[in-house]
Write a structure and sequence with these properties.
Elements lengths: L14 H17 L8 H20 L6 H17 L7 H17 L15 H17 L6 H15 L20
Helix pairs in contact: 1-2, 1-3, 2-3, 3-4, 3-5, 5-6
Amino acid sequence: IIDIYTYQSAGYPRTLDSAWRTPALLATMFGLIDSEYMTSEVFCAMLKYAYQMMEYFDTASTPSVVNQMCAADLGFTRLVVYLPEIHDASYYERARSRLDTTIGTKLTHEDGAYKEATTGYIHRVIDEILEAVELFKKIGYTDLDAYENTAHRLATFYANCFFPDGELVPYGDGGRETF
């Protein structure tokens, strides 16, 4: 277990992959917390890695692609919410501010259409927005209507991307070699 968290940098190989690793890191930490495998050495290595990831997300340049931006901001938020022992209170506001900007202004056009020219990532982004709502509820935020509205607008847009027979209109990364 310890090898996984000691031989690669927090940003390996890129921000998106690091963001996608945060659920596995947290599930491993909390899933093994009472097991014989969670020695103090392993726990400290995982906590250090979590801290390095949180700092990486806080200081790394933000990806320019909106699905990656949302994933990175959510990865940061996961660590902030589930590991309050490793940061000060300002991280809560930074996590909220980042997602407010990404979800509020970067994901959709005014009419609710997804800003990336693909049908390949919309469902993941909707899931990430809904997870952000749940995470922020855990720490007492209640003003999450804009997040839920964005998720609804994206879901409506996504539903409109299907043919009447239920097949998704394949374009961008959602439709490689189909047109």
